[in-house]
Write a structure and sequence with these properties.
The chain has 206 residues and is mostly helical. The chain has a three-stranded antiparallel sheet with strand order 1-3-2. Helix content is 63%, strand content 5%. It starts with 15 loop residues before the first helix and ends with a helix.
């Protein structure tokens, strides 16, 4: 890893112990937030470590700092690369694989929201569409529609109408969330700028 001078302009003097403790607190806080992202605590802590690191780190660095196994470190790093939160970097003269995190906080938020949409909202929307098709206007009484069903076996029309109305409202809600999410995190090449602008405008409205 690269070495830095002990003094830099506009940086207050901080003891090494205090600096390490501050980083550790941030890593732990980020790890506690991990389940809210839908990721493991270790994956979140690995991301936090790379996010606050001034230089790229390799797998051994992550293992030593977080006191985790090689398998756990490798799995977390691989998952973070897949999410787009970190990237692999090459350091000349070193055969080890190094990683660095996206340093733009808004870009990180954009990536997390995009992944949550892909992993949660889209599957939920697909499930709602499938459920709606079972009782919507194109549904058939007997599945294939080839057999007649005793009227006594039919669900009450009023109950079906209520079910469909409420399901349609739920579908509309999730569709709106999906569209808003896509507008916020759409791949416009601006990193997290679009999300930052949207958040700024919303903060002035509410």
């Amino acid at each position: 890893m690269a070495r830095f001078s002990k003094s830099s302009p506009n940086v207050p003097p901080v003891s090494g112990a205090k600096f390490a403790a501050a980083q550790e607190q941030l890593i732990q806080a980020w790890g506690q937030m991990g389940p809210a992202w839908g990721v493991s605590r270790t994956m979140a802590e690995t991301h936090a470590l790379l996010f606050v690191s001034a230089t790229p780190l390799n797998t051994d660095d992550v293992m030593e700092r977080l006191q985790i196994s090689r398998g756990n470190a490798s799995m977390s790093l691989r998952a973070l690369v897949e999410w787009g939160l970190i990237s692999r970097v090459h350091i000349r003269g070193d055969r080890k694989e190094y990683f660095q995190a996206d340093q733009d906080a808004w870009s990180v938020a954009r990536t997390v929201i995009r992944e949550r949409l892909r992993r949660e909202i889209l599957p939920l929307l697909a499930a709602l569409y499938e459920i709606r098709d079972q009782t919507g206007e194109h549904a058939t009484v007997a599945g294939a529609g080839a057999m007649k069903v005793n009227p006594a076996d039919l669900a009450p029309a009023e109950a079906v109408a209520t079910h469909n109305q409420r399901l349609d409202e739920l579908v509309a809600l999730v569709q709106t969330v999906d569209r808003l999410g896509e507008r916020f995190v759409g791949t416009d090449g601006k990193g997290g700028k679009g999300l930052q602008m949207a958040a700024t405008l919303l903060s002035k409205v509410v």
